[in-house]
Input
Amino acid sequence: MSTALDQLNNAEDVAIVRTSNRKWRARKKQFMPWLFISPYLALFLLFTLFPLLFTVYLSFHAWNPVAGLANMEFVGFNNYAQELTSPWFWKAVYNTVWLAVTTGIPQHVIAIPIAYLLVTAFKGTLRHFYTATMFVPFITSTVAVSLIFYSIYSGNTGILNQWLLALSGVPVIGALFAWVPDAMPIRWLSKSDLIKPSIAFVVIWKYTGFNIVIYSAGFLTVSKDLYDAAKVDGCNAWQQFWHVALPMIRPFIFFALTLTIIGNLQLFEEPFVLTSGDSGGVAQSGLTISYYLYLIGWEWLEMGAAAAVSLLLFIIIAAATSLHFYFNGKKGLEGNR
Amino acid sequence: MRRTLPNISLHVVMIIGVLITIFPFVWVAIMGTHSRSDIFSSPPPFYFGDNLLVNYEKLLDVMPFWTVLFNSLFVSVMGTAGAVFFCSMCAYGFFAYDFRGKNIVFGVMIASMMVPPILTIIPSFLTIKFLGILDTHFALWFPGIANAFGIFLIRQYMVNSITRDLLDAAKVDGASDFRIYWSVVLPLIKPALATLAIVMFIGLWNNFLAPLILISTPDKYVLTLALRSVQSVANSPWGAIMLGTFLSMVPLLLAFMFFSKQMMAGLTAGAVKG
Output
């Protein structure tokens, strides 16, 4: 009798243990994934979400970070009003857009045909050698690259000016460069109308190789059968490129353009180093919005105004990207699906 | 007829491209061996000079070059190692479990990749200031160790290379959650980890904006910051600066010589698969 009762009790105990075990397991199961993603959540809250909200908050305040948090003063839309009426801000907007367009378009116009030639006319090691070499600028630091160009552009003795001078002495083509000796020294980085083109060249030089690699990957997805079919239909080489290959890589163009737009509108390091970090160069001709933002926040210590500028920049980027998605998105993404 | 041997004009196009690309690298190497007066002579010398050692001494005069190089290396290695560990861990969380709120968190993460970094730079700076880690290397590598790009990249790789059955089998064998991640999943996603490591290392090595606003003690400078800071010094020793610039690029250039395929694939991973 008693043993039977004991057994029953035992069974109950076991059952209780089992259910609590199961509950614990279930809870653990719920808890586990959060544990795994907790590093992301923590850093996201600390360095993305909070900063994002705080930027908005800050943009309505006047605040010098040196004075401490207590000195934050609510100023409503003053920061925005101040920036939207500031000639420096509009200069920075103009320069940013100018640079984005003049560096953005050549990157792709050069990269697409080069990638096409690399994929269709070259093979193996040789193709890889050409592609890889042209990719090198992308992995090198922008600061290092800009410093090198800073010396190449140097007015009195930079190699660029020396070459132009030498070319003006060459018999036949010298006529084309006859203006050079009179113009010397050409101050590429300290004449307001030359600063932007000089910066633009560095940006194009640095990012074209990256686009070549993307477009090569794109052209590699085009099957040989398509070219063969086109040839049977009597397409010449140009038509094969224009009517067969190009439409097939639309998704790649769309994506590469998106990266260029977002990246170019945030241009900072090239103009900063090429103008020696000195208030955007002569007449602020090299001042981009990011650069201006840095000056406001860290040189002039007006964090509120800097926050307002960063939000204005965000609006510009969002608008440009939306326009791009609106006009190119559908075509771009339909591509070869 | 498509020819297997490309004709001369195509080679010429490519070689011009290559020359324009590598000229600045050759030039910086040459400049690094000349004295200031050689560099600023006319015409500038297009051959290696004999001033390398003098430039090296001057370089050490204007900045603690090896300290700075070590700082760059330290920040890059810590950030890379951290990212490989924490991004893969978070990616595993998203990959291996179904939990309430997963889609929302994942969606927010994807959306956060669209936020331009410039937008968060001010309050990130403030956060770092309030945490009391301003002017430390920790502030340079820590905030990026569990980044959305890395998590997304690795999760995608897991989705394509690891089956549910494998995870279930490991569970049946009694492996703990962490053990499954560490001993079963990690060895299988090495290529993705390598890709992430490449992207992180290059990004950290070349990073300039973060050190510019976060680091103020010259001994804690990283390469980019140190080189830029001697640029506007009056009478700056350009030979020395060019030598430093060249040396700062050597590690990545060397790595690229041996791993160009992996590095190109890694750095365009987001674009090509997107």
